[in-house]
Amino acid sequence: MTQPTLTRSWVASANGHTDFPLQNLPLGVFSINGGAPRSGVAIGDSILDLHAAIDEFSGDARRAVEATAGGQLNAFFELGRGPRVALRERLLELLAEGSPLQTREAQVLHRAADCRMHVPAQINDYTDFYVGIEHAQNVGKLFRPDNPLLPNYKYVPIGYHGRASTIRASGADVRRPKGQTLPAGQTEPTFGPCARLDYELELGIWIGQGNEMGDSIAIGDAADHIAGFCLLNDWSARDIQAWEYQPLGPFLSKSFITTISPWVVTVEALEPFRTAQPARPEGDPQPLSYLLDKRDQAAGALDIELEVLLTTAAMREQNLPAFRLALSNSLHMYWTVAQLVAHHSVNGCQLQAGDLFGSGTLSGPQAGQFGSLLEMTEGGKKAVELPSGEVRKFLEDGDEIILRARCRREGFASIGFGECRGTVVAAR
């Protein structure tokens, strides 16, 4: 499917919109004035109410709209690629200039600023991976300078099972967590609020059609089981994490909240931005056969620019713009998304429509590309200087982290993901 680069929308704000031009059309769940959640499509500064416009759809496209009923997209994800493509093609017709749907604008379109966004699906399971190799190396150097990557990293897509119940849509407050920490120089832990709160810049991956328990998804088929993408902030309590993570890995340090951008950017919208998976460095092992597919290696990566910004309470009082902490890219993923799906299911684990994967922190190799404060400050040794005169080693109450993403390619309209925001508030 090619992107309709020359087509304009009758929704004026969509034409040239930084995130949601006609070429994007992400799906999400919204509500108005405390009403029931409903499904919609982002178009410029507006949201198309799918069910208000349902009589404009037929065939597979109508099946897709019907599957979005009830304020959750799980049934829509389960339908797979065919109905999803049919819906997209019909939306392109309905929202293009000259469409008769414009006469029904007041019935089917809502100002996004008047709407509240929700988590778009019932997430039964959430798995966070660790596929940003630059992040893995940066963090590894802090703790194992002579051996930053453990031997399994280049053979196995490392991941852990996260907490689905605390995933929230952009804008939710981030309550500073409490837990056990081991203060420097002491032999016994103390209990209290986290003092080393951090963010992590990640992509979220929405699973479409799942698999039966006991069956695996072949690497050549894995891409067909991906419905779309979002931004994901894997908030992390570094001091709690340092005390608890051995021998089983993160627990309370990661489970207090995970923030996602609320719009699902579909696989089809991202097609123009697919590219070859970056070649592995010379000497790195080839993936085992169940993780290796020529088509996936040729076009299984995505070129998505990823940005992290910070505002503090003092910066907002002074009307200072958000300060960019990092600019990175999804091409720093050591494993493709299809490889994550294939590996997750190879033991017979059942994936279900609406499951969410986190990519892991997507840092680049250079300063200005790090996806966490842990890396930027070298574990708290160096402070980040802000335009307000403040400094940060880790996040303080009142700090707001904003994640953004942008896809660009010559000859195609650029698209974005919307924002993934969270403001830190004091522990209770």
UniProtKB/TrEMBL annotation:
Residues 23-120 form the Fumarylacetoacetase N-terminal domain. Mg(2+) binds at D234, K254, T258. This is fumarylacetoacetase. Its EC number is 3.7.1.2. The active site is at H135. Belongs to the hydratase/decarboxylase family. Substrate binds at Y130, R144, Q241, Y245, T361. Residues 134-425 form the Fumarylacetoacetase-like C-terminal domain. One of its GO terms (biological process) is homogentisate catabolic process. It comes from Pseudomonas extremorientalis.
